[in-house]
Amino acid sequence: MKTLICIFIAYFGLSSAETIPELAEKLNGLKFIRLLDDVGLTDMLSGTGPFTVFVPTDNAFDALADGVLNKIMKDKELLKSVLLFHILSWKIYTKELKNEKRIPTLNNNMKVRINLYNKKIVIDGSKVLLADQNATNGVIHVIDKVLVPLPSQNMLQYLASDGEFYKFVHSFVKVKLERKLIDGPFTLFAPTDTAFDQFPPYLLIKLVSDDKKLTDALNYHLVKGTLFFDEWNGTTNSRRQIFKYHNESR
């Protein structure tokens, strides 16, 4: 019997007689709950549900860049949209999550991306620290970063709007490689204009004048799949993934 109980807990998570806000406070999510209070979302998450909530730890809020949290808190609509980006309108357990799956949140159905790295579960770049914590009206997954809605542009549009990647974007467009991005998701290693300036001029001229060589060089900056730096950097599996993709791209 004890074995069966242990298996049940490991598979379905711990059960609680508390609502999501009550349980979140005990899971190091006090700052998240206080922000919910500020925009009137606590009552909703105390209701029937069911909900899934990705709760950032207090440390996750402390780790935000200087001034970011204050800026968000001064704009109640922005704060509300950020918080809603952590909430799903149904209950989902980690055993149901698939790599590269995108699931809609209560922030106008904007989607978070799920990635699986070995046994790690990552939600839009935020690692799940504690999963499948059952409340009376849903489930909590504790995460190590605050989720922020992604820009609506594609990768090249985003880089073009930044102003530091003109030469890289121009090269992509020159050989019509932007069409390849439609078949994503991809991870793009984007050199800045400064990086291009450090390239020997005669080699750069030779490269950009040969579309095939330029395409090969740009493909080497492109990897199939979503690879968040904190989770894949330096691991054997990530190196294999990059090596495999570039061999297939030739």
Structure notes:
The chain has 250 residues and is α+β, with helices and mostly antiparallel strands. The chain has 14 helices and 9 strands. It has helices at residues 2-12, 20-26, 30-38, 42-45, 58-62, 68-74, 76-84, 155-162, 166-174, 193-197, 201-208, 211-219, 229-232, 236-249, and strands at residues 51-56, 87-88, 102-104, 111-117, 120-123, 126-135, 138-143, 186-188, 222-224. Strands 2-1-7-6-5-4-3 form a 7-stranded mixed β-sheet. Strand 4 and strand 5 form a beta hairpin. Helix 9 (166-174) crosses helix 12 (211-219). The longest helix is centred in the C-terminal third of the chain and has 14 residues, at 236-249. The chain starts with a helix and ends with a helix.
Topology:
Blueprint: H1 2-12, H2 20-26, H3 30-38, H4 42-45, E1 51-56, H5 58-62, H6 68-74, H7 76-84, E2 87-88, E3 102-104, E4 111-117, E5 120-123, E6 126-135, E7 138-143, H8 155-162, H9 166-174, E8 186-188, H10 193-197, H11 201-208, H12 211-219, E9 222-224, H13 229-232, H14 236-249
Parallel strand pairs: 1-7
Antiparallel strand pairs: 1-2, 3-4, 4-5, 5-6, 6-7, 8-9
Helix pairs in contact: 2-3, 3-7, 9-12
Straight-line N-to-C gap: 56 Å
Q: Assign the structural class, choosing from mainly alpha, mainly beta, alpha/beta, alpha+beta, or little secondary structure.
A: alpha+beta
Regions with little confidence, pLDDT below 50 for 5+ residues: 1-13, 238-250
Overall spatial form: elongated
What spatial order of strands do you see in the largest sheet?
Answer: 2-1-7-6-5-4-3
Order of helices and strands: HHHHEHHHEEEEEEHHEHHHEHH
Radius of gyration: 22 Å
